[in-house]
Amino acid sequence: MAKTAKFQREEVIHNAMLLYWEKGYHATSMRSLQDAIDMRPGSIYAEFGSKEGLFQVALEHYAEQSIRRLSDTVCASSSPLLGLKSFVSAAVIPNEQPMPSHLCMLAKTIAELTEDNAELLNSARQALLRIENEFEKVIKEAQECGEIDPSLDAQRLGQYVQIQIMGIRSYVRASQSRPEQSQLLIDDIFALMI
Known about the structure:
Layout: H1 6-23, H2 30-37, H3 41-48, H4 51-76, H5 80-92, H6 105-112, H7 118-144, H8 154-175, H9 179-191
Helix pairs in contact: 1-2, 1-4, 4-5, 4-7, 5-9, 6-7, 7-8, 8-9
């Protein structure tokens, strides 16, 4: 099974991403990885080089998925600001489809890894920055539409949105707040931008 068809490869990567997101890099054993992706170690090494190589691909998949979800949400909304707000709500407020972890996979990775895993740590940081840059683009669109004060720095607002998502997700988990309470916190994020 060393040569996995593209559609199977995507499924393997997605399932690995879910497992790594749930357990973290170090707590994911080769055995649990084998079970989650239905591949033997030899096939994993042939296809991805190592457990680390598969984790790297899973991080990239997570970032791409997040960026695609942001883009789709903004495109489906009547305005960039409403799209961004919808994306943040979906990322923060628990829904029927539970996430593998209450933390963003990238934030969880950055919290878990040390410089001993410098390449993976850097990949997670870069992926987080890519998502932050996408927030900045949406904010600039909202500024051009007159939805957000154009005198505000779009890059800093992108960072602010990223920080708020990570913080509110952790807060929701710790406080077991209701969706209505979480929505008020999300509303506060965007009230500061107008």
